[in-house]
Amino acid sequence: MKRNVLKTALAFFALCGIAAAKDYEADVIVYGGTSAGAVAAVQAHREGKTVILVAPDTQLGAMSSAGLGYTDAGKAFTIGGVSREFYHRIWKEYQKPDAWNYQKRSEWDSAGQGNKGIDDEHQLMWIFEPKVAEKVYEDWLKESGVKVFKGEFLDREKGVKKDGAKIKSISTLAGNTYKGKVFIDCTFEGDLMAAAACDYHVGREANSVYNEEYNGIQTGVLHHDHFFKKDISPYKIAGDPKSGVLKYVSEEDPGKKGEGDKKLQAYCFRMCLTSVKENQLPFEKPANYNADDYALWLRYYDAEGLNGIMIFSKMPNFKTDCNNRGAFSTDFIGGNYDYPEASYEKRKEIVQAHKDYQLGWYYFLLNDSRVLPKARETMSKWGLAKDEFEKTGGWPFNLYIREARRMIGEYVMTEADCKGARETPKSVGMGSYTLDSHNVQRYIKPDGFVQNEGDIGVHVKYPYKISYNSITPKRAQAENLLVPVACSSSHIAYGSIRMEPVFMLLGHSAATAAAISIDAGVAVQDVDYATLKAKLLKDGQIVEMTPEMKKLVDDQYLKRVVAKKKTGEADAQKKTAQ
User: Measured between alpha carbons, how far is 255 from 217 in angstroms, rounded to an integer?
Assistant: First the structure.
């Protein structure tokens, strides 16, 4: 009887296209198909370990293959090891003639963020199309022989089995179980880390927690240009609070400067748009579209006369990596607060809300009669790229999760580490990007006008070390888990760490540490740092600043100062002449 029931069940699963649950086992289990996840899997395999990559994602590489092709490289000379190899592989792809199907390589303006988009001298490429990045990750993992299981979501309620502080296995909602010796959580959300009962934080810590300046609520602090420079009413009838508040403006008290909260910097889709008409797909009207939702943008544009509506960073083949610009743009401010702790279904709803907001805004710009011709003309040049994200109609696979959970591990990276104000122990890589946070909330000031809060951009002069202990949980909570993405960091320090090249280099270091942990039979917290450092250096990882690097930074800084002075003098002469 039992045998007949089993046969019936298996037949039902086969009919429905559902595979029977299976058990898998490897030395290293990587959870998360992000750029860090792909690199960690490749490096663990190179260390001679059996590896399984379990990914809830349907495509590999997360943001590097989901539109963020204009790499936030910071000081690119700090990017080494397998992370650097990724950008070399991108360079190799663009050596192929068929990679330039809409544009000649010689025609492309390849300026990057402080570096060359194409660096032929070092055989690196820092700017690229999403589909090229995805191909690199897919080919890389196939070459490595890593087993990859896509569309596998961790059972966050009961899918992590532990023996004391040691994770024995993880199970997915599909019923599959993955047993391993060391686990690496490479998700933006830190889902495995949280399900393993490790400490973590969501939102901004108060400045007092880690003795920081830019961590907590930042009311009154206006960095960059992502704030309202003119007095703009947030009410449906301008100046009349009784008329109600416009959409995308919060009526909540923003809190006091320096205090902590549970709110997050804004997410958006990093759109890959194209100006090539034959390669364009149109911006369709969302089902729940309401033109009046964008009334605040109209007032903003009318009041400030903006020169642009979003950042269009050039990528090959007349494509662009789009990002937020100004006080009202692609960032859906306030739309993500529930995301880190939300169920998978709720996360889908939040992602869809972000799509509706962004797609609705594009449609509004192109079709609403109230939009001035200049703005419509800017937007009318662009369309979704037919040859990108083909399974989702040209829309990116992934929402840009700039920040979600952050582990509270053995060591917490803070503003002091990024500024070089304290000695960071056990470096396994370097960061160098600006202390960067997008806006967190849009509120009504006491004077009755609208303002954004949370956008921070503080320059980091020198590269800084990232501690090995910031990717290890507290020993008593998980002794065989490494967390290179949702790592142990304050909000503002994470604003610099959270760049794709850094995630990859931390994934590399985590995989190397995992192999040493397995070979030595010790907890990840007990990995001998001298052994780890020697191996990382051998593999091209950069873990500390050399005198040559410091001189390079100082020389670059001096050039900027001289250039700024010349610009100022030229402007002064122009005013005098007028």
Answer: 7
Grade residue 162 by pLDDT with cuts at 50, 70 and 90: very high
- Asked whether residue 578 is domain-assigned, the answer is yes
The 3-state DSSP class for residue 355 equals: helix
Q: Report pLDDT for 8.
A: 44
Which amino acid makes up residue 390?
E
Task: Give CA–CA dist 21/189, Å, rounded.
Answer: 25
Give the C-alpha separation, 60 to 136, whole Å. Answer: 9
CA 514, CA 519: separation in Å to the nearest integer? 9
Identity of the amino acid at 5:
V
pLDDT 10s digits, 397-433: 999 999 999 999 999 999 999 999 999 999 999 999 9
Encode pLDDT of 451-465 as tens digits: 999 999 999 999 999
In 3D space, the residue among 208, 211, 317 whose CA is nearest the CA of residue 259 turns out to be: 208
DSSP string, 30-60: EE--BHHHHHHHHHHHHTT--EEEEESSSSS
pTM of the full predicted structure? Answer: 0.94
Distance of CA 378 to the CA centre of its chain: 27
Would you say residue 464 lies in a domain?
no
> Are 313 and 321 a contacting pair, CB within 8 Å?
yes
Highest mean pLDDT among 302-306, 373-377, 529-533: 529-533
3 state SS of 154: strand
- 551 inside domain: yes
3-state secondary structure 546-574: CHHHHHHHHHHHHHHHHHHHHHHHHHHHH
Q: What percent of the chain has pLDDT over 90?
A: 87
Distances in whole angstroms, Cα of residue 172 to Cα of each of 55, 154, 176, 181, 551? 10, 4, 6, 18, 50
Percent of the chain as helix, strand, coil, to the nearest 5: 35, 20, 45
Q: SS3 letters for 492-532?
A: HHHHHHCCHHHHHHHHHHHHHHHHHHHHHCCCHHHCCHHHH
pLDDT of residue 570: 61
pLDDT score for 111:
81
Residue 305 is predicted with a pLDDT of: 86
Q: For 273-290, what is each residue's pLDDT tens digit?
A: 999 999 999 999 999 999
Q: Is 555 part of any domain?
A: yes
Question: Could you tell me the two tokens for 39?
Answer: 């690199």
CA–CA separation, 386 and 368 (whole Å): 25
**Beta-sheet strands, E only, within 122-226:** 124-125, 147-150, 160-163, 166-171, 177-179, 182-185, 200-202
Range of the domain at 555: 546-578
Q: What's the pLDDT score for residue 312?
A: 94
The one-character DSSP state at 98 is: G
Domain count, the chain: 1
Measured CA to CA, the distance from residue 60 to residue 464 in angstroms comes to: 28
